[in-house]
Amino acid sequence: MNFWIATAIFIISYGLIVSEKIDKTKVALIGAGLMMILKIVSQYEAFYNVEYAIDYNVIFLLIGMMIIVNLLSKTGVFQFLAIKSVKLAKGNPLQILILFVCITAIFSAFLDNVTTVLLLVPVTLFVADELELDPFPFLISEVMASNIGGTATLIGDPPNIMIASKVQLTFLNFICHMAPAIFFVFSFFILTIKLLFGRKLHVKEEIRQKILSIDEYNLIKNPTLLIKSLGVLGIVILGFILHGTLHYEPATIAILGAAILLVISKEDPHHVLKELEWPTLFFFIGLFIIVGGVVKVGLISKLSEGMISLTKPSAENMFVTAIATLWFSAISSAIIDNIPFVASMIPLITNTAHAVLPTTADVKPVIQHSTLMPVWWSLALGSCLGGNGSPVGASANVITISLAEKAGYPMSFKKFIIYAIPITIETIIISTIYIWLRYYVIC
């Protein structure tokens, strides 16, 4: 009986999240509450059990980075970079677009894509207004760049954080395996947006001169806080790179960095903490409990059995499983938010590994088996890049569309997918070639 109740809660919750008729945070918390009140998972299991509980490494890593970026945003550095980009591009709208896209991708790789679009979209709207340009080419290019750039590192996109936490992967693991793929994906993406938007972007000369006259250095509001914030951020990123050697979780490094910056910045913590993305954090918390419930009742086990039957993985080779995971993840993440999708896939792949791969006391855990690793990288690539496929595919998409609508530039579902679907297919094809060459030809 618990199996069907948990499955119903899971499916209904996902349906409501996709429909967006009820706020996703409310849905996640209601679903989590039902899982516990109906005793599908006990409160102890939801909060403390290793197999079913909330992944606190994900939650506290996000909290730490949100605090650091919040304080960094108070310095005006993001506005400075926007105007500086305009000047570097000499007011050429196509060059501005490419620079903005590059800044978005880089920031998304080392911060997180949700925070990056929250900070850069208002700046983009400001520049587009000043240049009297349609912001749509900028916004859709930036949101897709945020998801592409965020794919490159452990901290760039929430699905990567979740995968790394489960599989015990390091920052350097992601740089080594994901960054090369994203280099090729992003290179083709730049060429694509040049073809799509290059002839549509024109600006009047007098308007161009007006924005070039803005002194970007006047936009830096707090130079002292900027130096402190960049110093702490640099140390935190170094900590992420070395965390495998230091034997600290990324969440520990992020929280310590956030605490130090709060102290040395002398900012009121009440104001800083109030501005964090608490709805997103509680969405994660509720979602982890819902997924924990369906893991406990065996739904994920049954799905893993189906995956084994379909792709026929073996202890020697999982090529078909890896490619199937890549495309299935991309398609699914375009339909539903990639965060709940990955939360569901992680235990599915884990169960598949335990069913197929040998276990001994003298080797790494089964989920780190060399045969399985391409499947994890496929999940990361598919879920992060697939999030570009629709307005609801990733949290960064939803936030960008909401900010644009508030500014008077609504982005329709249809217009979004006309551009998003072909680009997403392009990125997944490149990823397929990368997985095949990297792990099954060159190796």
Automatic annotation (TrEMBL):
Residues 14-382 form the Citrate transporter-like domain. The chain crosses the membrane at residues 27-44, 56-73, 94-111, 171-197, 225-242, 248-264, 276-298, 318-336, 416-437. It comes from the Bacteria. It is found in: Cell membrane. GO terms for cellular component: plasma membrane. It is a multi-pass membrane protein. The keyword Heme does not apply. This is Citrate transporter-like domain-containing protein.
